[in-house]
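QA checklist item 7 of 12: single-chain prediction sanity check.
[x] sequence parsed
[x] length recorded as 332
[x] structure emitted
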Amino acid sequence: MPEGHSVHRIARQFDHNFVGKTVRASSPQGRFAEGAAVLDGREVVSVKAVGKQMFLEADGDVWLRVHLGLYGAWDFAGEILLDPTIASANGRMGQTNQRGTDPDAAIFDDAGENSLASIGAPRRARVHVRMSEQTKGLEDDGSEWPPPVVGQVRLRLMTDVTAADLRGPTACVLQTPDEMLATVAKLGPDPLVGDPAENEERFVSAVRRKGTSIALLLMDQSVVAGIGNVYRAEMLYRARLNPHTPGKAVPEEVVRELWRDWARLLPIGVETGQMMTMDGLSPDAHRAAMASRDDRHWVYHRAGLPCRVCGTQIVLEEVGARNLYWCPKCQA
């Protein structure tokens, strides 16, 4: 499932390519035909991400809410104005597939994930981009316009030069402004949305009053928005915190540091498309980490391997129906 950095990257590309423009909307799959008919011919007013959900505003007080879930993806094609605040990529953009831009500048990794490349002024490129955690099954080279419909496309949004196809989302619904605000109100704080001090206090208060394990609380989107399996494991290790500790038993200063760590890591993920969680790397080690997930994380996906600090075997267990990786010595 895309974590928070992915959705913020997607929202920023929508902001650069769709906001202020009239869109044609359709549902090639047919499952969102009525909603597409409402969006068709409207101007996109704004777009924002909160945690793992994106909200696109169209004129006439219409909001499109999209939650990609485990299998959802946005596929972009055509003339795309790249966001200067995030790295362009060949591979995955959080995780996103982008072909045709600066191939020599990219650092490819062995899992096909997005690579860190030069960040400069906005530029236009004829590309085909996938924005999700999945890249398989997309073969079009982006040269045909309008692009052919590939697979089960729930919603297609098009300007004169750019197309965005949504496939496989958990949620794709239209909302009124009040419904949108009610949805956002149910989400926990996002470091990139709202007042930083208020966000920290909301997080601390939510964690400190619950007896639920901190491992479950970090994945609870009503407690904190945007954290998924990778960031959860890495943040708990970075805090040297036992994942089974009840929230109310975690010292307040540790809870605050967890929040501040999330506020540090999320912008890095948005900028690079990588869930980079290791600090203090040499230039060579950093490049290796950007090229390989195996060199990028402290514990995630390292079950049975020695802890990078103490040498103890990393444990894998299921918590909340998701895999959790942790070091039983460093996080005792």
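[x] summary fact logged: The chain has two domains: 4-184, 189-326.
[ ] second reviewer sign-off
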